[in-house]
Design goal:
alpha/beta; 11 helices; 49% helix; 9-stranded parallel sheet; single chain
């Protein structure tokens, strides 16, 4: 069943678990995640990120994913990740998305809040949820450029800005930075859970963590108990297909493309199930 983000996160906050938010830029990835969620009878978030538009045009795949979500036996939110333009956010809404991330964090605090507030006003009028971002999220490219010497604390969300941002915008969820890195595969991020506590105290808004791949299991569990309601995942699931495909390739005989897709989908489904089990804390739908 297709629902908006607020519906999922309200339940998560009430029952002390986190919903996994998977970037699913292709139909194979989308099917793998939905199969995983349904086998575990758990709510889930799927959807596109504007960054991956070339791999799955939102106007073409959005309606298909929305229909797949409607047909699912568990609650599914179709969410746009890191929408960085009003035009693209509107494309997502028209394509059937029930939630959008309005990411204007490259602007000043005031301009970011002003644009997100505008998105919230429109989106809420049609039942679509909105996620915002205060501060900046570092990525693996920044780490490589800094030769591993990137000071992650420079990217930490300021607790004083959290309450102000939610008060101004009325956003349903807020991405916060406290130690994770987008696309990190070369090192294990270390979360500053004390800083997360400060962010949690700043607002009762649903908090979101991006860049979970590579974070230690125990740290993820603790972060959930400290107030995270949504945790984004992509690198872990997407890269799980590589080894599975390599193991399946045999020089002696051809591997048809549809067989490669099946191998990749199976690996991604198992990786998604592992994440959902961890984050859901045993919670199931119904």
């Amino acid at each position: 069943m297709l629902v908006n983000l607020s519906t999922l996160l309200d339940e998560a906050k009430k029952n002390h678990y986190a919903v996994a938010g998977f970037t699913t830029p292709t139909l194979d990835t989308c099917e793998a995640v939905l199969q995983a969620a349904q086998e575990l009878n758990a709510p889930v978030i799927i959807g596109q990120a504007q960054l991956y538009e070339n791999f799955g045009p939102i106007e073409r795949l959005g309606p298909v994913m929305a229909q797949m979500a409607r047909e699912a036996k568990v609650p599914v939110c179709l969410h746009l990740d890191h929408g960085t333009s009003i035009d693209y956010i509107m494309k997502a809404v028209k394509a059937g998305y029930t939630s959008v991330m309005a990411d204007f964090s490259d602007r000043s605090f005031e301009e970011n809040a002003e644009i997100v507030k505008m998105c919230v006003t429109f989106c809420h009028s049609i039942g679509v949820s909105v996620e915002g971002l205060v501060g900046r999220m570092p990525n693996v490219g920044m780490v490589e450029e800094a030769a591993g010497n990137l000071n992650l604390r420079e990217f930490f969300t300021d607790p004083d800005e959290v309450g102000r941002f939610i008060e101004i915008t009325g956003a349903d969820a807020l991405t916060v930075s406290f130690g994770t890195i987008h696309g990190m595969t070369v090192a294990k991020p270390v979360l500053d859970l004390e800083h997360l506590v400060r962010l949690r105290k700043a607002s009762d808004c649903a908090l979101v963590m991006h860049g979970s791949s590579g974070v230690e299991t125990e740290q993820l569990k603790k972060a959930i108990t400290y107030g995270l309601s949504k945790i984004n995942v992509y690198t872990k699931v997407s890269t799980s297909a590589q080894k599975a495909i390599q193991d399946a390739v045999c020089p002696e005989k051809p591997l048809y493309y549809h067989e490669i897709e099946a191998v990749a989908k199976s690996a991604m489904k198992e990786a998604a199930k592992e994440t959902i089990r961890l984050l859901s804390n045993g919670h199931t739908f119904g």
